[in-house]
Design goal:
Blueprint lengths: L9 H18 L2 H14 L3 H13 L4 H6 L12 H15 L7 H10 L2 H24 L9
Protein backbone atom coordinates (compact mmCIF):
# COMPACT_ATOMS: atom_id res chain seq x y z
CA UNK A 1 0.00 0.00 0.00
CA UNK A 2 1.22 3.47 -0.75
CA UNK A 3 0.19 6.59 1.07
CA UNK A 4 -2.45 8.79 -0.49
CA UNK A 5 -0.55 11.77 0.81
CA UNK A 6 2.22 12.33 3.31
CA UNK A 7 1.44 16.02 3.66
CA UNK A 8 0.58 17.13 7.17
CA UNK A 9 0.85 20.75 8.15
CA UNK A 10 3.90 21.14 10.43
CA UNK A 11 1.94 23.24 12.92
CA UNK A 12 -0.78 20.58 13.14
CA UNK A 13 1.83 17.85 13.63
CA UNK A 14 3.64 19.84 16.34
CA UNK A 15 0.39 20.64 18.14
CA UNK A 16 -0.76 17.03 18.16
CA UNK A 17 2.67 15.83 19.29
CA UNK A 18 2.60 18.37 22.13
CA UNK A 19 -0.89 17.22 23.15
CA UNK A 20 0.25 13.59 23.11
CA UNK A 21 3.31 14.41 25.21
CA UNK A 22 1.31 16.43 27.75
CA UNK A 23 -1.32 13.69 28.11
CA UNK A 24 1.32 10.99 28.59
CA UNK A 25 3.24 13.06 31.11
CA UNK A 26 0.10 13.90 33.08
CA UNK A 27 -1.03 10.28 33.12
CA UNK A 28 2.27 9.40 34.77
CA UNK A 29 2.38 5.78 33.61
CA UNK A 30 4.29 5.33 30.34
CA UNK A 31 3.49 1.62 30.01
CA UNK A 32 -0.24 2.18 30.49
CA UNK A 33 -0.11 5.06 28.01
CA UNK A 34 1.27 2.69 25.38
CA UNK A 35 -1.30 -0.01 26.15
CA UNK A 36 -4.08 2.55 25.72
CA UNK A 37 -2.65 3.82 22.43
CA UNK A 38 -2.14 0.30 21.12
CA UNK A 39 -5.71 -0.72 22.02
CA UNK A 40 -7.24 2.30 20.31
CA UNK A 41 -5.04 1.68 17.28
CA UNK A 42 -6.20 -1.96 17.16
CA UNK A 43 -9.82 -0.85 17.18
CA UNK A 44 -9.14 1.73 14.47
CA UNK A 45 -7.03 -0.65 12.35
CA UNK A 46 -4.13 1.80 12.24
CA UNK A 47 -1.07 -0.21 11.20
CA UNK A 48 1.22 2.82 11.38
CA UNK A 49 0.29 3.63 14.98
CA UNK A 50 0.31 -0.04 16.01
CA UNK A 51 3.79 -0.49 14.63
CA UNK A 52 5.03 2.65 16.38
CA UNK A 53 3.43 2.09 19.78
CA UNK A 54 4.24 -1.62 19.93
CA UNK A 55 7.90 -0.76 19.36
CA UNK A 56 7.78 1.92 22.08
CA UNK A 57 6.08 -0.48 24.51
CA UNK A 58 8.74 -3.11 23.89
CA UNK A 59 11.51 -0.56 24.47
CA UNK A 60 9.83 0.34 27.76
CA UNK A 61 9.91 -3.30 28.78
CA UNK A 62 6.21 -4.09 28.51
CA UNK A 63 6.00 -7.88 28.66
CA UNK A 64 5.41 -9.47 25.27
CA UNK A 65 2.57 -11.65 26.62
CA UNK A 66 0.69 -8.49 27.66
CA UNK A 67 1.06 -7.12 24.14
CA UNK A 68 -0.05 -10.45 22.66
CA UNK A 69 -3.19 -10.53 24.81
CA UNK A 70 -4.15 -6.87 24.63
CA UNK A 71 -6.72 -7.48 21.91
CA UNK A 72 -8.49 -9.86 24.33
CA UNK A 73 -7.80 -7.98 27.56
CA UNK A 74 -11.23 -8.73 29.02
CA UNK A 75 -10.60 -12.47 28.81
CA UNK A 76 -6.89 -12.34 29.71
CA UNK A 77 -7.33 -13.07 33.40
CA UNK A 78 -4.73 -11.56 35.71
CA UNK A 79 -2.55 -10.30 32.85
CA UNK A 80 -4.04 -6.82 33.30
CA UNK A 81 -4.80 -5.36 36.71
CA UNK A 82 -8.07 -3.62 37.54
CA UNK A 83 -6.63 -0.14 36.95
CA UNK A 84 -5.43 -1.15 33.48
CA UNK A 85 -8.77 -2.82 32.75
CA UNK A 86 -10.59 0.39 33.69
CA UNK A 87 -8.35 2.40 31.37
CA UNK A 88 -8.81 -0.09 28.54
CA UNK A 89 -12.60 -0.11 29.00
CA UNK A 90 -12.62 3.69 28.81
CA UNK A 91 -10.38 3.53 25.73
CA UNK A 92 -12.86 1.26 23.99
CA UNK A 93 -15.88 3.31 25.02
CA UNK A 94 -14.35 6.58 23.79
CA UNK A 95 -12.97 5.03 20.60
CA UNK A 96 -16.09 3.20 19.52
CA UNK A 97 -18.86 5.39 21.01
CA UNK A 98 -21.30 2.60 20.16
CA UNK A 99 -24.27 4.23 21.82
CA UNK A 100 -23.15 7.77 21.09
CA UNK A 101 -21.71 8.35 24.56
CA UNK A 102 -19.43 6.82 27.18
CA UNK A 103 -21.58 4.75 29.56
CA UNK A 104 -21.67 6.02 33.15
CA UNK A 105 -20.48 2.69 34.53
CA UNK A 106 -17.36 2.79 32.34
CA UNK A 107 -16.59 6.36 33.41
CA UNK A 108 -17.22 5.57 37.09
CA UNK A 109 -14.99 2.50 36.90
CA UNK A 110 -12.13 4.61 35.55
CA UNK A 111 -12.81 7.35 38.11
CA UNK A 112 -12.29 4.81 40.91
CA UNK A 113 -8.72 4.21 39.69
CA UNK A 114 -7.63 7.66 38.52
CA UNK A 115 -7.86 10.98 40.29
CA UNK A 116 -9.53 13.79 38.39
CA UNK A 117 -6.28 15.12 36.86
CA UNK A 118 -5.04 11.71 35.74
CA UNK A 119 -8.47 10.83 34.37
CA UNK A 120 -8.43 14.06 32.36
CA UNK A 121 -5.00 13.14 30.98
CA UNK A 122 -6.17 9.62 30.17
CA UNK A 123 -9.16 11.01 28.28
CA UNK A 124 -6.88 13.44 26.41
CA UNK A 125 -4.53 10.59 25.48
CA UNK A 126 -7.41 8.46 24.18
CA UNK A 127 -8.74 11.41 22.20
CA UNK A 128 -5.41 12.29 20.61
CA UNK A 129 -4.53 8.70 19.63
CA UNK A 130 -7.93 8.44 17.97
CA UNK A 131 -7.13 11.63 16.05
CA UNK A 132 -3.72 10.27 15.04
CA UNK A 133 -5.34 6.98 13.97
CA UNK A 134 -7.82 8.79 11.79
CA UNK A 135 -5.13 10.95 10.20
CA UNK A 136 -2.92 7.97 9.41
CA UNK A 137 -5.67 5.60 8.24
CA UNK A 138 -7.35 8.25 6.07
CA UNK A 139 -4.07 9.05 4.37
CA UNK A 140 -3.11 5.34 4.23
CA UNK A 141 0.25 5.85 5.89
CA UNK A 142 1.81 2.34 5.96
CA UNK A 143 3.41 0.77 9.02
CA UNK A 144 7.04 1.75 9.42
CA UNK A 145 6.78 4.70 7.05
CA UNK A 146 9.40 7.37 7.58
CA UNK A 147 7.32 9.92 5.64
CA UNK A 148 4.10 10.95 7.31
Amino acid sequence: MTARTTHLDPAVRASMQALSAAAKKGLGDPALAELVQIRASQLNHCAFCLDMHLAIARKQGVDESRLDLLNAWEEAGEVFDERERAALALTEAVTVLTEGFVPDEVWERAARHFDEARLAHLLALITVINSWNRLMVSRRIPAGSMEW
